[in-house]
Design a protein that fits this description.
4 strands; two-stranded antiparallel sheet; two-stranded parallel sheet; about 140 residues; globular; mainly alpha
Length: about 140
């Protein structure tokens, strides 16, 4: 009692994100506009199974907890084959078009199955590839 699980997720309640409800008629336009302006949105009515969302979140947290060396190995690996457009991107590697400052986030760029640029996934978290593909398809 009183101890926190190692895998607990800390929720930051002070962050406000623009909301897009995908059940609304102009959701596609709202999504594009708000994504361009803010970079992130809170999505409602997206239809993704909550269990899949939970599994994807857990796998993403495992990837995010990998040592920096492992993440950078995934960044440097296969850059030529993906034209630098797939897989892991570390802090400061990307920036919004015409932005003076690089992004202060790291992320994993996933292409749809069959895309001409392959997506490489970390071998250290084998379920990440499967769940990200499932999430991509669900979205």
């Amino acid at each position: 009692m009183g101890t926190r699980k190692k895998d607990a997720v800390r929720v930051v309640k002070s962050i406000e994100l623009p909301v897009v409800d995908f059940r609304e008629p102009n959701a596609d336009r709202d999504y594009m506009e708000k994504s361009r302006e803010y970079g992130f949105i809170a999505a409602l009515g997206h239809g993704v199974d909550p269990d899949l969302d939970a599994i994807a979140t857990a796998a993403t947290l495992r990837v995010g907890r990998l040592p920096t060396e492992a993440l950078l190995r995934n960044y440097n690996q296969n850059r030529k084959e993906t034209f630098g457009r797939s897989g892991y991107f570390p802090f400061g590697a990307e920036g919004a078009k015409d932005a003076a400052v690089k992004d202060l986030k790291h992320f994993w760029h996933v292409h749809r199955m069959g895309h001409h640029v392959p997506t490489f996934f970390p071998s250290e978290v084998p379920e990440f590839a499967h769940v990200m593909r499932a999430l991509f398809s669900a979205m």
